[in-house]
Amino acid sequence: MSTYLPSLKQLQYLVALHEHGHFGRAAEACFVSQSTLSAGLRDLETLLGVTLVERSRRVVRFTPLGNQVVAKAHRLLREGEELAELVRSSGQPLVGELRMSVIPTIAPFLLPRVLPRLRRDRPQLKLFLREEPSAAAIESLHHGRADCVLLALPFATGEVEVERLFSDRLLVAFPKDDPRDPPDSIPPSLIDESRLLLLEDGHCLKDHALAACNRPELRASATMIGTSLHTLVQMVDNGLGLTMLPEMAVTAGILHDTDIAARPLQSENAAREIALVWRKNSPRSEEFKLLAEELRAG
Questions:
Q1: What average pLDDT does this structure show over 72-101?
Q2: What is the DSSP letter of 183?
Q3: Residues 6 or more apart in contact with residue 72 via CB below 8 angstroms
Q4: Does 220 have pLDDT greater than 70?
Q5: Which residues, in sequence order, are bridge partners of residue 160?
Q6: CA distance readout (Å), 242 to 232, 239, 275
Q7: For 21-96, where are the alpha helices, taking DSSP H only?
Q8: Confidence bin at 101 (pLDDT 50/70/90)
Q9: Cα→Cα distances 265→186, 230, 247, 260, 270, Å
Q10: What pLDDT is attached to residue 74?
Q11: Which of 73, 220, 227, 294 holds its CA 20 to 30 A away from the CA of 80?
Q12: How many CB atoms lie within 10 A of CB 50?
């Protein structure tokens, strides 16, 4: 075997610089000094005999070859992670570090119910949580920054294994004094497109809500302004419109101390599927299935 091979540490530095676009922030992400990261990248370029990064005082720019090397480095780092996972998974399940990304429309409503029991029943599990939108979470998964992702389907996830946990109904939330308040459920035809408030682009709940309504004009007319469900609730409570909420958020108390009513959306697709996903052929597959059972019990 050749001794002139890049180290995983050098590739980690390169990927971090590509992700952050700044030597200082990349060094912080790798928990090393900026001089250590810079020296590691210079050694990598010397080892390969090429320039990967064009440096200036203000801009970090990767060469075309540098971008190709970064893409390959992602795969190598992911395989290195999987090698370590293979060793960890040979022992007791749900022990040691596990990095899970969770989307913002699930994290604050499901995790408070689940985490206390996990800490009690799995004291040796070190669960590191990262809240990020679906697309960023899936990117973290495929780049090896996350071991698994808790998200809502349908969503384009790429090559992953999926463990579905449960269905989460979509509810229409509106001021309690709305004269159009039906007794049980709300058909999409009753939704006033000029008053509909939804999460901004990047949140899959927006797409789930629009798909459930099956009214193309809603996508063009709805105000996509909310950065969080709590923001949308405050806007509705102040009479600015109506919105759609997942049932888990309402069950968790997001409407407490508000003058908002919530009714189920009357539609065949008025639900999202909560699921845990992980990379295909992961050596920790059985462990993730066990984690899914823990989350499902929550």
A1: 77
A2: S
A3: none
A4: no
A5: 279
A6: 8, 8, 27
A7: 23-30, 34-48, 64-89
A8: very high
A9: 5, 20, 11, 15, 6
A10: 86
A11: 294
A12: 12
Q: 64: cis peptide before it, omega within 30°?
A: no
Alpha helical stretches, state H, 158-245: 204-213, 216-221, 229-237
Distances (CA, A) of 129 to 82, 98, 104, 268: 19, 9, 11, 33
Which residue type sits at 74?
H
Burial 152-164, CB ≥16 within 10 A → b, else e: bbebebeebbebe
Give the integer Cα–Cα distance in Å for 252 and 292: 20
% residues pLDDT > 70 (the chain): 92
pLDDT in tens, 49-80: 899 998 877 788 899 999 999 988 988 887 78
Contact (Cβ atoms closer than 8 angstroms) between residue 83 and residue 114 = no
How far apart are the C-alpha atoms of 198 and 215, rounded to whole Å? 14
Number of H helices, E strands in the chain: 11, 11
Q: Which of 84-98, 121-135, 230-244 has the lowest mean pLDDT?
A: 84-98
Chain length of the chain: 298
Closest CA to 45 of 75, 17, 80: 17
Write down the residue that tokens 């968790």 correspond to: 252
List the domains of the chain with CATH numbers: 8-87 (1.10.10.10), 92-163+281-297 (3.40.190.10), 167-272 (3.40.190.10)
Residues with Cβ < 8 Å from 107, sequence gap 6 or more?
A: 129, 131, 150
pLDDT at residue 245 above 70? yes
